[in-house]
Amino acid sequence: MSDFNTQPHxxxxxxxxxxxxxxxxxxxxxxxxxxxxxxxxxxEKVEEMGKPLxxxxxxxxxxxxxx
Length: 67
Prior knowledge:
This protein is mainly alpha-helical. The protein has a domain of 25 residues. Helices cover 33% and strands 0% of the residues.
């Protein structure tokens, strides 16, 4: 016989009527996490990238890469 006893996870309780907290109640900073605005490239960068390829050009490039 072993002295090892399985313990419940500390985030749970054995009481079915016990407290039920959501992640936002447990960690209120979850909602207030600072986030960045979406990146919008400058007009110069957009011009540098050029026009997008057409579907035909993309399919041609796919065929070249799959050889």
